[in-house]
Write a structure and sequence with these properties.
By secondary structure, the chain is α+β, with helices and mostly antiparallel strands. The chain has 6 helices and 6 strands; from the N terminus they run βαααββαββααβ. Helices cover about 30% and strands about 25% of the residues. It has a 6-stranded antiparallel β-sheet with strand order 1-6-3-5-4-2. Helix 4 runs antiparallel to helix 6.
């Protein structure tokens, strides 16, 4: 069954300040494969062009009264299926388009991702998923640039993880390359 997330917008820095301390050991996230970000198959576009997708899209205005942004993306690291146990808590950063995408990608790959990986044990997330947006649903330039999700086994684990010095170090690194700004959100996985 596909994942649907219930989002709560929060500032990454407020989250760091407002949560308790702690951390748990976790598995190593996949490495970023930015070169794989370009779609290798036309399958998503074929799906969007179907009558079934049109029916789903037409249904959105019946309940998405606050609006929405539909985008097409490519995961840039290996995807790991959920455990099927208790709902995961997810910390998400959605990056806006940076002033210099080449500088963003260089810093992200060479400095930020290694910092996150080195901090994983202290922060306590189980896996990370990295995404690069290719376009909006209509094929226009994407409304956002990239997304990073850190998966925790529970909301308590997330609260403990974001209160660690390691998470503060990761959060403090964001302004060094996220020159377009970003949104930080917390979600609970729903079925």
């Amino acid at each position: 069954m596909p994942r649907r997330s219930s989002w709560l917008l929060v500032s990454a820095f407020a989250l760091v300040a407002g949560c308790s301390k702690g951390g748990e050991k976790a598995a190593t996230p996949g490495t970023d494969t930015t070169a794989a970000a370009a779609p290798t198959s036309p399958e998503p576009k074929k799906g969007i062009a179907t009558e079934g997708f049109k029916k789903v899209a037409d249904d959105l205005n019946k309940f998405a009264t606050g609006g929405l942004t539909g985008m097409v993306a490519t995961t840039t690291n290996p995807h790991e299926a959920g455990s099927g146990e208790a709902p995961a808590a997810i910390f998400t950063v959605i990056y806006k388009t940076p002033k210099d995408t080449a500088a963003f990608e260089k810093y992200y790959a060479e400095k930020h991702i290694p910092l996150v990986v080195a901090s994983q044990d202290q922060i306590g997330f189980e896996r990370a998923e990295l995404t690069k947006f290719n376009s909006n649903l209509d094929g226009s330039k994407p409304a956002r640039y990239r997304q990073a999700e850190l998966y925790f086994p529970s909301m308590d684990a997330l609260k403990k993880g974001v209160a660690t010095p390691a998470f503060k170090g990761v959060a403090d690194d964001l302004p060094k390359f996220a020159t377009g700004g970003f949104d930080a959100l917390v979600a609970v996985e729903t079925k």
